[in-house]
Specification:
Low-confidence stretches of chain A: 391-399
Number of strands of chain A: 4
Structural class of chain B: alpha/beta
Strand content of chain B: 25-35%
Shape of chain B: elongated
Strand content of chain A: 5-15%
Order of helices and strands of chain A: HHHEHEHEEHHHHHHHHHH
Radius of gyration of chain A: 31 Å
CATH topology of the largest domain in chain B: Rossmann fold
Strand order of the largest sheet of chain A: 2-1-3-4
CATH superfamily of the largest domain in chain B: P-loop containing nucleotide triphosphate hydrolases
Low-confidence stretches of chain B: 1-5, 312-316
Number of domains of chain A: 2
Largest interface: A-B, 27 and 29 residues
Number of helices of chain B: 11
Helix content of chain B: 25-40%
Shape of chain A: elongated
Mean pLDDT of chain A: 79
Radius of gyration of chain B: 24 Å
Mean pLDDT of chain B: 85
Oligomer: heterodimer
Distance between the termini of chain A: 10 Å
CATH class of the largest domain in chain B: Alpha Beta
Largest sheet of chain B: 6 strands, mixed
CATH architecture of the largest domain in chain B: 3-Layer(aba) Sandwich
Number of strands of chain B: 13
Distance between the termini of chain B: 42 Å
Number of helices of chain A: 15
Order of helices and strands of chain B: HEEEHEEHHHEHEHEEHEEEHEHH
Largest sheet of chain A: 4 strands, mixed
Strand order of the largest sheet of chain B: 5-6-7-3-8-9
Chain lengths: 399, 316
């Protein structure tokens, strides 16, 4: 066993050094900056477009009294709905030629009038391009009804007592934490584990595979390569998380503490996130290493990467489907299926406080890492080195 | 597990009826051999004879389809990996790695601590005139230098068994000479060396024992002298007279090559024949008795076609 660990360490040390000390690793670390930059650029453009967009308004041709009541009804409704959800009203005094005034208002570009309300509160009539936005007419019906109502002036009293958390909001918050955690795990794994696909190309193309295969067990080589890439990924993640936490502290009032608290608490969730990331990486990485080991060229690896990415999305979908119902049959199936288990269990950590399922899951996942690596190395010996007898499953556990 | 009967000390490598099939093709067909500890052992045969596959099975890169092998007393060759050095036919190093690090890394794969590997790498590079290249990446080295670096990586952990697959391929005359000297030096230090080659002269110069491999089988395994002894010496004789009754004294199978009579040395030695020729008035101008070379033995043992395949590359 010591020899196995030592051999794996020699391989891992070489691979880790070759990865982290290369110039390409700087680009790797800067990688997440590109989507942030793109987000910033397109977000800025979007915000500018949003601020420059003038919402269509309804021109109200009425008396001052009617307009005041309509405005009061509109403000009450706007307080209950998100910003921009309620039509904007602009008052115009009635002119002698009402038809001409109406035509003039509908042709107006400043402000852009969508419809004109005439007839006051008694005989209201809406004229305009409202077919494409039936909500405008519906809102005006509601506003007019409220403006007409004598009780409107004094809405019924409602005593409000605020509590820190209610089960409905807590469950929703935890689902959000579960989803964010799962998505983070998914994106980190999809970004990082793909590198493992090409891990053996260098050795195969440089023929050094022969030197390694003669000196160390293939299993040790697989383990070394996988853990080297995990370590390189962890370096990247530490850099990204540190930078991300700093940005959140600066940008968001209250910092990371304002995010919804998971069921196992933040420290527990953080610890489980690290463990489940490692497990997710090792499980998918072991599978990718096995698949990638069959490739002889970089082109073959590229060809393989698309179906592998889709497979990851599928697994993510399987795990994400369990959020909100962590004890359902589907959730248990996703927790048992090795490749979706880490993501499913991380979501569970956000939603359920028990720890024992995590201990069980981590042991189960570790077992499958070993199984996939063993299978991978046997497949490599069989298909690449053209060696070994038929795989004897009953001797699987033996080194 | 190391063997207890003492043969592990006598033989560094033993193989018994090794067979390797690749699909429907049988690459190695029942190879058995025993490599005495401390010897230089050559695996001689044309390309495609099964030498590389045999070596790869012996050191555990691939498993045999059937048969068994024992390396330094262990049935699982990888268990002896720390005491074995292997130079594959297809050379390979990480191009970005420095020469010194490459040697130390190869030692580390075999269990040598990295710091000790670096120290020995410096020594070895210095001995081989490559000290100034120690911290240069492999990609900047010439092919010959890179091959030397890989060879140094093969021996940096001071293995008891050194397995070299076509080690002379691609080397110029000077480097071939250096390699031969290195092999002899390692053997003097107690190592056992097995190397494969399809160049007979290398085997003849270096090996104490050879296995001649043809079509996946060992057709001869023994001392080089024993291989030669399978053939009689050849006599080349030039007479002053070109014809006469004395010709009947020549043994059967005598042939004329230019001005010379060529025949196998008779079992009773040359004296009776020479006496008959002199008495018959043939007159003797020149006489040469040639001991058969390994090439001649190879032709006799492996066949003309195998020998023709071997003749593709000449030694430097």
């Amino acid at each position: 066993m010591m020899r196995f660990i030592r051999s794996s360490y020699v391989i891992a040390r070489r691979d880790f050094g070759a990865t982290v000390l290369s110039k390409a690793f700087i680009f790797f670390l800067l990688g997440p900056l590109f989507p942030l930059l793109l987000g910033g650029v397109f977000g800025g453009i979007g915000a500018r477009v949003a601020t420059q967009t003038v919402h269509p308004v309804v021109a109200v041709v009425s008396s001052d009294g009617d307009f005041a009541r309509l405005t009061k009804a509109r403000d009450d409704l706007a307080a209950a709905l998100p910003d921009g959800a309620v039509v904007t009203l602009v008052h115009y005094s009635p002119e002698p030629d009402l038809a001409a005034e109406q035509r003039q208002l509908l042709a107006s570009r400043d402000p852009p009038v969508r419809a004109v309300l005439t007839g006051g509160l008694d005989k209201p009539r809406l004229t305009g391009a409202v077919d494409e936005d039936p909500g405008t007419a519906a809102q005006l019906r509601l506003l007019i009804a409220n403006a007409r109502s004598p009780q409107h002036a004094a809405p019924p009293p409602l005593e409000v007592t605020n509590v820190r958390a209610a089960s409905g909001s807590l469950a929703k918050d935890r689902q959000a934490t579960a989803l964010y955690g799962q998505m983070l795990l998914f994106f980190l794994t999809i970004l990082l584990s793909g590198m493992v696909l090409s891990q053996l190309i260098e050795e195969k193309s440089n023929k050094i595979i022969e030197v390694i295969a003669a000196a160390v067990p293939i299993d040790a080589m697989f383990v070394g390569k996988l853990f080297a890439m995990l370590a390189a990924s962890v370096v990247g993640i530490i850099v990204w998380i540190s930078a991300g936490a700093l940005i959140i502290q600066f940008v968001k009032h209250g910092g990371v503490q304002t995010l919804p608290t998971p069921a196992v608490g933040w420290w527990g969730f953080l610890a489980l996130s690290i463990v489940y990331f490692a497990m997710n990486y090792l499980l998918l990485g072991a599978a990718f290493l096995t698949i990638g080991a069959q490739a002889s060229t970089a082109r073959e690896v590229q060809t393989m990467s698309m179906p592998v990415t889709f497979a990851q999305v599928l697994i993510f979908g399987f795990a994400a489907n369990t959020i909100g119902d962590p004890n359902s049959t589907g959730a248990i199936a996703a927790a048992v299926f090795p490749l979706s288990s880490p993501m499913t269990m991380l979501a569970r950590a956000a939603e359920e406080p028990e720890w024992w399922p995590h201990l069980l899951a981590i042991c189960w996942q570790a077992l499958w890492v070993a199984v996939i690596l063993r299978l991978g190395s046997q497949l490599f010996r069989k298909t690449v080195l053209k060696s070994g007898p038929r795989v004897k499953w009953w001797r699987f556990g033996r080194a | 597990m190391p063997r207890q009967d003492g043969s592990a000390d006598q033989f560094a490598v033993e193989a018994d009826k090794l067979v390797k099939d690749f699909g429907d093709t049988r690459a190695v067909d029942g190879v058995s051999l025993a490599v005495p500890t401390g010897s230089i052992y050559g695996l001689l045969g044309p390309n495609g004879a099964g030498k590389t596959t045999t070596l790869r099975m012996l050191i555990g890169i691939i498993d045999p389809s059937s048969g068994s092998r024992r390396v330094l007393g262990r049935e699982r060759p990888l268990e002896a990996a720390g005491e074995v050095g292997y130079l594959p036919e297809e050379r390979g190093l990480y191009p970005a790695m420095h020469a010194r690090e490459a040697i130390a890394f190869m030692g580390a794969l075999r269990g040598l601590p990295l710091h000790e590997g670096r120290r020995r790498a410096d020594e070895l590079l210095n001995e081989h005139g490559l000290a100034e290249w120690a911290k240069k990446p492999i990609r900047s080295l010439s092919k010959g230098m890179a091959q030397t670096v890989q060879l140094l990586g093969t021996i940096v952990h001071r293995p008891k068994l050194i397995v070299l697959d076509e080690p002379f391929a691609g080397l110029d005359a000077i480097n071939q000479g250096r390699l031969e000297e290195l092999i002899r030096r390692e053997t003097r230090a107690g190592a056992t060396v097995i190397f494969s080659t399809h160049v007979i002269a290398h085997a003849e110069r270096l090996c104490e024992r050879v296995a001649i491999v043809a079509k996946g089988r060992v057709v001869f395994d023994g001392r080089v002298d024993d291989a030669r002894a399978k053939l009689n010496s050849i006599v080349r004789l030039r007479t002053r007279a070109s014809d006469g009754p004395w010709r009947s004294a020549f043994p059967a199978g005598t042939r004329r090559e230019g001005d010379e009579w060529v025949f196998e040395l008779p079992a009773g030695g040359p004296e009776p024949l020479l006496r008959a020729l002199l008495d018959g008035g043939a007159g003797i101008e020149t006489l040469a008795i040639e001991r058969p070379g390994l090439h001649d033995a190879f032709v006799a043992i492996a066949g003309t076609s195998a020998a023709a395949a071997m003749g593709q590359e000449k030694p430097a």
